[in-house]
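Standup notes
- HV: blocked on the assembly model, inputs below
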Amino acid sequence: MKDDASKKDINPTPMLDELEGGKWPSFVTGLKRLRDEGAPNNQEMMNDLLGQLNHSYEERLGFWKGGTVSVFGYGGGIIPRFSEVADRFPASKEFHTLRVMPPAGYHYSTDLLRQMADVWERHGSGLIAFHGQSGDIMFQGCSTENTQKAFDELNEMGFDLGGAGPALRTAMSCVGSARCEQSCYNEQKAHRQIINKFLDEMHRPALPYKFKFKFSGCANDCVNAIHRADFAVIGTWRDDMKVDQEKVKEHVAEKGRKYTIDTVISMCPTRALSLNDDDTLDIDNRSCVRCMHCINVMTKALSPGDDKGVSIMIGGKRSLKVGDLMGTMIVPFMKLDTDEDYEKLEDFAETCIEFFADNALEHERIGETIDRIGLPAFLEAVEVDPDPNMVNHPRTSSYVRTDDFDEAADEWFEKKAREAGLTVSAE
Amino acid sequence: MNDQANKPRTPDEVGVPDPFQYMHPTLKKNFGNWDWHDRPRPGVLHHVSKSGEEVWTVRAGTQRQMDVFTIRKLADIGDEFADGHVRFTTRSNIEYMVADEAKVAPLIEALEDNGFPVGGTGASVSMISHTQGWLHCDIPGTDASGVVKGLMDDLHKDFVEEKMPNRVRITTSCCQINCGGQGDIAVNVQYTKPPKINHDLVANVCERPAVVARCPVAAIRPAMVDGKPSLEVDEKKCVCCGACYPPCPPMQINGAESTKIAIWVGGKHSNARSKPTFHKLAVANLPNNPPHWPEVRAVVRKIVDAYKADAKHWERMGEWIERIGWNRFFEMTDLAFTKHHLDTWTGSRKTMNMSAHIHF
């Protein structure tokens, strides 16, 4: 919509005005509300921010550059932005973002939201993103001078800066046990325990490059951990899935046999399901890969088993530099129940971070390091034994030196014997 | 001089806050004890605990980049129509939890009256996960919020209904780093020209060996240009990825005409049914055309409609294409299959069809 032309000093925004119609909430309308009705400091900053953004729309180029801004005691967590067109739009010449870690699982009280809005009205632009792709609350638009003031107030509320640069980054966890019956561990606990243990790596960046943790309660992976995390923790279980056969029958009666076969039985990736003649479910749990599909469809009849824990996948990342990588299965199952179990997870996280700090090249993600040195060398470094769950299939290339194959095979059989509770002769 | 007064405050390194202090009481009470859920209508989740307690969640779309007035409005709605607690999803939808079913309908009405669409659950098109763009990024090829606003205006109906074969996750990214992530549909900047180098600035602004090392195809080398130490790009090798631009801003990768948009399809995060997948190129070279990006919106609409009409229930975009074959995908979406769809990067042979399986 058109702005009131009688108002002086308002930067015209003809391109952005086009984004105020339509049914989806408009960020432009929000920016304009700050410009027109916000606190005096918000008004000025937003008027010029709108001016610069409209200028970008016209020129089809960005006009921000980075720099160095931090708060006392920390080396990261602020994303500095200085305008390259500050001569035209001076009030938003500094428009930094504070990355602030949200409560695990993104829970807020309305009081907390109001407090955050009040802090940002006083010290920033009045614009907050819930949340950025990094998983942080992004308090956007702060002058260099006010950065410390805003941080101090947020910090006193119990909030801390997240990661930026070559450092441990802000993590994400799904809603998990708080509201989801498919959750296989306490995502919030794992999330907080690991990140809060290694805060030094977040606040004083000294790693070769970024390192991200993400925590999903099951293989639906609602926080996109496999694609986006260097260290993905995915809930799973190793006993049989739970089935209520009466509820299966109810599902079939409600949805029909054909529909159930088409959408549940035929879609099982390992052909582990079959519908019995009496409309109960025949489940081959040894073949089930815990993909979650049938449980997603039959939410009342099916659920994960009782012997729950996590899989850990290492090395997911986006494009730069070698191309997109997904996390590779490194720990197929780690029990996650007692405090000791969570400490083991924490210990393994520490082993991986230390490996990364010691071995990655500058600007290399851990997935790229593993590509460079090969999975066997990585496993040896983090003291994990090879497992068939790590691969789609064994190697197809014969270009490998196998003169210690027998020793490796002995190790495998000894490990299997130990798992079976047998005594190993050498011990 | 009083040193104490000038001493900066030492941060209290509190880390990730404990969520329980902000969590809805019913969620807190039934933490780890949920039994099953269903969706009574689009935008509403209904979870039942093993204790028999129930909670209804109403999900609504937001603009993600929120002014304090919007935040306070959302808080007001939470106080008046819900129980004073909210959470956000990974795709920036807000969720209100209520322990009393009678509160659901008035809450939905309040959200809709204030312009927040209720939906995003189940087989819908949820909010687009996106980046910062011209609003805040230092290397953006396009805007993020603006593209998303236009696309979500188009997809509003698909957000408030659950009439897709399965969920549709769309992402946008304002450079090829692809911070928006993988998606059923990904709308990403695609550069088409090598960087334009301002040789006057390189020596002072860029750490040259680091920039050389950043290039994925080893196309950058140190050079003296007009007597100044600079960098040069072998333009025959350059894949125009833009990796050199963040560490060396004088290597400008963006151009008003040369920065284009590519659309990718079939990315999937979930492990449900098929393993997670990366998205694949559908079309490149669409114009970066603010404020409405009509060419991008038209292609996204076409892909969404084709998927909606043809996929089976529970098939995600990539699973649908795998069943019908890529030739039918290109046919149904009126898009061209070109030499640029043939992957040339490391491991590309494994993306080729090494069988006699053919779709006609």
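- HV (later): unblocked. Chain A has four domains: 1-164, 172-238+307-392, 242-303, 398-427. Chain A touches chain B through 129 residues (CB under 8 Å).
- Next: hand off to the docking folks.
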